[in-house]
Amino acid sequence: MELESILEYLKNKTIIITGATGFVGKVLVEKILRVQPDVKRLYLLLRASDANSATQRMHNEITGKELFRVLREKLGADFDSFILEKVVALSGDVIFEDLGVKPVKLKEEMCNEVQIILNSAATTKFDERYDVALEVNTFGVLNMLDFAKKCLKLEMVVHVSTAYVCGERAGLILEDSASMDEMAKKPSKFDLKSQEKKMVESKLKELQAQNASEEVITSAMKDLGTARSKLYGWPNTYVLTKVMGEMYLGHAKGNLSVAIIRPTMITSTYKEPFSGWIEGFRTYDSLIGGYWKGKLTGIPVDPMSVVDMIPVDMVVNSIITAMVVNANKSGKIIYHLGTSLRNPLTFSDFNNFMFQYCTKNPWLNNDGSPVKVEKLKMLRSMDAFHLYMQIPLLALKFMNKEFDQYFQDVYVNYNRKAKSVKWFVELYRAYLLFNGIFDDTNAEELRRIASENYTDAGNFNFDPKCIDWEDYYMHTHIPGFAKHVVIKHSQSRL
Description:
Shape: globular
Number of helices: 18
Distance between the termini: 62 Å
Number of strands: 13
């Protein structure tokens, strides 16, 4: 049997990508344009007031980024004309019908041409406003599906979710919908349209009737999301709304061919287009940053628990491979993209890597003095963590009282620092204390099918076993995080 080619499949394809300004989205755009310049067209759905604003946003937040350095160097003076020919910046949003695309002719062209939809649009804040998270992460999926069904040549829909839709479970977690199936069987308790949406609308009307400020409304909507998440047993608003989005996808996909990619914690690029590129503070990077600056000295975590992370370029390679292998096959398949099963990294080792790097490359205070770090204290429970944070505070409070407020400034500063650390830990508690291992049988089968049937599968590697964690953290991830995020963030605040 003659072998196929992933690149050949991408040739002359017309693709819609939602969430293209996000971390995964822009790496996906760069990879497709770099490896297959003969792709016909990429439609990038961007929140913007009009087409010109969308184009400007694309330049500022996607193609103008350092991520595109390799492609820009490869094409030289032809880079801008290439982007103009291959990429269309669409003014729209998944929260609207027809994805907010208004020009009738453009909409008709898309419905007649689009073969693939890659949906990575999401708001990823754990404590997002409930109304905002519902619109994007849940009902945005339904709008995407409705549009997909209008695309006459559609071959594939790939939806980017998160592995943590499993909830706070332990043990081996399968690539299935078991965590949300029980919820789906209880419509009286969990009716998405008649309950959650109406509840949000009712709460907003109530706040508006009270002439509440935007700040008060935002706070109330965040609290509502947290309360609903806890009620249904999910760690935060982000995960709850992603769960509901997947439920919609399962119920309303019809005969579409759908692949759901569920990555764990996404980190900097492993190899492509160059190693170490990252944007923004990802989940564990906030921990690295706080530790490096001496602000974080202890967290609740089991030293032998597994830190499940996956480089973003591997996630993108899995998206493209899943898209090609599953095209035109009616049905739904779920892929876990993680490392906990086949190449586990313990938190103890992760802690050692952080300590080694931050000792060899200390953070410098404003006065130029180096921050000296000790190994992060790993406390096995929230109770132990709270005690660890509380004892110094009680001691300072006692000394301050005994010595006539002499330690007042020290007490105030430590109390502020303690509150900040407690807020961080509470936000990430479910992940720090997570004891699940993500099964990746489907993803492993995808790798096998690709390697046996596609000549260029090696150019789309997403095998976690190839990662040397010490080398990756010491020479790729933390240096990349420092260069692309921490230093830029610090400079922007000067």
